[in-house]
Design goal:
- The chain has 276 residues and is α/β, with parallel strands linked by helices.
- The strands form two sheets. Strands 5-4-3-6-7-11-10 form a seven-stranded mixed β-sheet, sandwiched between helices.
- The protein is globular, with a radius of gyration of 18 Å.
- The chain starts with 34 loop residues before the first helix and ends with a helix.
């Protein structure tokens, strides 16, 4: 979810389009990954064994653990299940080709494919990408901060299941999403339920059931779930502040199934970026 993979997968053609023609719109430039993101080992998520185990079993427990010991539960069962009521409200707002950023095991991309809608999921976890593909979803193992197919031409991008936290820098992530979307394209974001949340932290993935690094037994020594990476959590007010600073327009906000969402419209390109 947060770091570039160690090897590249060939790019599929942008969903809904044939191979690019010489007169096709050019992709907008993409920003470099934030400095904090560059410090994360390439295989951080693949070495997070509890995450891979949880996806294989379709169940938790699974958490993001902050350095101070605070745990954020991860809803593996929902990720591995079929779209729920909240997901349906997201799917209804998907127009044009859809890019699911941090697609996980691919429930939303698979649902869009079943509806005949062009969609692609991207995720840095090979386990997640394998699950997504097994469900009939088109998925690519890639960081969102790496070059992606169809840059500047996606109609909708998704940041659900907390993925607005990717990279630990919401402003940088919104700027990257703007480069991926076509002008006035839609970004659907799931935010924290708590309006007061606006934090940037380092976390690691854990199932919360084993001992600490260095203890005796099968988990002695460095633990694969102990690799820290930058993450962010934002409520709606914080998201809207970052969006306004990046010239995004608020289109909608809603609550469904106890989850909170916002839909943003990508900024129009400036004369300088339009000439590129």
């Amino acid at each position: 979810m947060t770091s570039p993979p160690p090897r590249r997968t060939p790019d599929p053609a942008p969903p809904g389009r044939a191979a690019a023609r010489s007169d096709a719109p050019q992709s907008l430039p993409h920003p470099a990954a934030p400095p904090a993101l560059r410090d994360v080992p390439d295989d951080a998520w693949d070495r997070a064994d509890p995450y891979a185990r949880a996806l294989r079993s379709g169940a938790g427990p699974l958490f993001l653990r902050r350095r101070d010991g605070w745990l954020l539960p991860l809803d593996v069962e929902r990720w591995c299940g079929v779209p729920d009521g909240g997901d349906v409200t997201v799917l209804r707002r998907c127009t044009g080709p859809v890019l699911d950023i941090g697609c996980g095991p691919g429930r939303l991309v698979a649902a869009l494919a079943a509806l005949g809608r062009p969609a692609l999921g991207v995720d840095v976890s090979s386990e997640a990408v394998a699950h997504a593909r097994s469900r009939g979803a088109a998925a690519l193992r890639r960081s969102v901060f790496e070059p992606l197919p169809g840059e500047g031409r996606w109609g909708t991008a998704l940041l659900v299941d907390g993925n607005v936290g990717i990279g630990g820098d919401p402003a940088a992530l919104l700027a990257r999403a703007a480069a991926l979307l076509r002008p006035r394209g839609r970004l659907v974001v799931e935010v924290a339920a708590d309006d007061d949340v606006d934090e940037r932290v380092h976390v690691h993935v854990t199932d919360g059931t084993h001992g600490t690094p260095g203890t005796h037994g099968p988990f002695a020594g460095p633990r694969p779930d102990r690799t820290p990476f930058p993450w962010a959590r934002v409520g709606l007010p914080a998201l809207l502040r970052y969006a306004a600073a990046g010239r995004w327009g608020e289109e909608d906000r809603w609550t469904a199934g106890g989850r909170r969402f916002a839909a943003l419209r990508a900024p129009e390109p400036t004369p300088r970026t339009a000439r590129r």
